[in-house]
């Protein structure tokens, strides 16, 4: 049986509201030992923020992580892949969209996990 994204993805998806400060988001990431959070606006998915985004889009620009919110720096282009896709398909999509992480969805397009480039590379 071929290896699929389902076997490689992180199943614990952390959702935080868009008005969460970067400081609070970083604390949540550290507490859960993760590198990304899904940003929500009400019941809708609004974007993704990674630990790298916090550094590059805020801290390196001199913005205060105690006042800047996830909604202000989130990547709004949500790139999704099916959980039954192959690692090769995921890498191709990451390269095409210039992203390091993909949201993983089930056949009903419900979010079930996140897969990072590092997860895929370690599988090859």
UniProtKB/TrEMBL annotation:
Which keywords appear in this protein's UniProt record, sorted alphabetically?
CBS domain
**Cross-referenced SMART domains:** CBS
CBS domain location, by residue?
A: 9-65, 74-124
Indicate whether Nucleotide-binding appears among the record's keywords: no
InterPro entries, alphabetized: CBS_dom (IPR000644), CBS_dom_sf (IPR046342), Diverse_CBS-Domain (IPR051257)
So where does this one cross the membrane?
none
Q: Does the keyword Cell membrane apply?
A: no
Output the PANTHER family linked to this UniProt entry. Answer: CBS DOMAIN-CONTAINING PROTEIN (PTHR43080:SF2), CBS DOMAIN-CONTAINING PROTEIN CBSX3, MITOCHONDRIAL (PTHR43080)
What's the name of the protein? CBS domain-containing protein
């Amino acid at each position: 049986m071929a290896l699929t994204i389902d076997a490689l993805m992180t199943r614990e998806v952390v959702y935080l509201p868009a008005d969460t400060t970067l400081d609070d988001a970083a604390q949540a990431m550290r507490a859960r030992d993760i590198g990304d959070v899904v940003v929500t606006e009400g019941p809708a998915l609004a974007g993704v923020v990674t630990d790298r985004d916090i550094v590059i889009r805020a801290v390196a620009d001199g913005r205060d992580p105690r006042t800047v919110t996830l909604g202000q720096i989130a990547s709004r282009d949500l790139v999704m892949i099916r959980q039954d896709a192959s690692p090769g398909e995921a890498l191709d999509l990451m390269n095409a969209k210039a992203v390091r992480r993909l949201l993983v969805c089930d056949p009903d397009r419900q979010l079930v996990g996140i897969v990072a480039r590092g997860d895929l590379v370690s599988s090859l």
